[in-house]
Amino acid sequence: MRRALLASLALLATPALAQEAPVTSERATFRVTTFARGLEHPWGAAFLPDGSLLVTERRGRLRRVTPDGRVSAPLAGVPQVEAAAQGGLLDIALAPDFARTREVFLCQAAAVAGGALTRLITARLSPGNDGLTAVRRVLDATPAQSSGRLHFGCRIVFDRDGFLYLSTGERNERNRAQRLDDLAGKVIRLTRDGRVPPDNPFVGRSGARPEIWSYGQRNPQGLAVNPWTGSLWEAEFGPRGGDEINVIRRGANYGWPVVSFGREYWGPRISRETAGPGIVDPIHVWTPSVSPSGIAFYDGEAFPGWRRSLFVAALSEPGLVRLTTDGDRVTGEERLLWGRDRIRQVVVGPDGRIYLLTDASDGAVLRLDPA
């Protein structure tokens, strides 16, 4: 009863939506609408069939935003997270058959014996959309690391065949990305129930973890399936420069830290090489950095001129990057809302509009509307 009362008060307290003056870009004119306010470092989001939006807050809370922008009280049943530095409650994704099973997947930083790690969990969303039940751990990206709370990665996406992909950061320990007996600095591929698909590239290989799909990633916080080719695209942070967009291939090595376009934060190049034998090159690089986080392909009705674009949330410089694509190639770049808000994630809504999560202690969900 008390939880329901608090939820009702939270909904009533939400202010009306606020629209801004039109913005003209290369292929669209749009307005920025503040869709929801009062979120503490929102990180991941997923739309429910009723049009409401589940949003994670890095501190460890999960909230529901109604279609008219009202923010609920925190949902019950969310497991404890390691909310320190870059860690916390991070991404969320609905199971492909959510309408029938009400299953959701969440990624978090978790404290365990020996330190902290990236953890994938599954749960059921209650019929009233006010809590999680049947919470179960699916995978821990072992080994745990005692030092630092950085580079957890933590994006989740399902492909056309229903396989689940999870990105993990190398926890700011570079050589972990190249180790095949270690789940840090990887893209991991699993079945819905957490089993290893028999066609994963390292199944049966001695000294290698069978969950690994690709390796050599630094801190990948963007994953999306290209709807026109079916390929998996990934965005990852470089250090000082060297941010990358990659097309993820089975068993491929993406090079970190053997090759890199980036520099140490104090100046020198990390690697004298930007390419090498047996290493897959990125299809797009930023130097200086934009700090790419979440990504989403666009094929909606609201902005016909933006179709076949990949939108990239940028943290520094803050803003939104729009990449034009042709198949599995990047053909151009446009920067939107530059210098305005640190954007953690970009989501395309069922209405064809684009929703942005701003990374701030008083964070918001912004919506791009046609103008």
UniProtKB/TrEMBL annotation:
Keywords: Signal
Pfam families hit by this protein: GSDH (PF07995)
Keyword Signal included in the entry's annotation: yes
UniProt keyword annotation of Cytoplasm present: no
Residues of the signal peptide: 1-18
Ranges where the Glucose/Sorbosone dehydrogenase domain occurs: 39-367
Name the UniProt record assigns to this protein: PQQ-dependent sugar dehydrogenase
Organism: Neoroseomonas terrae
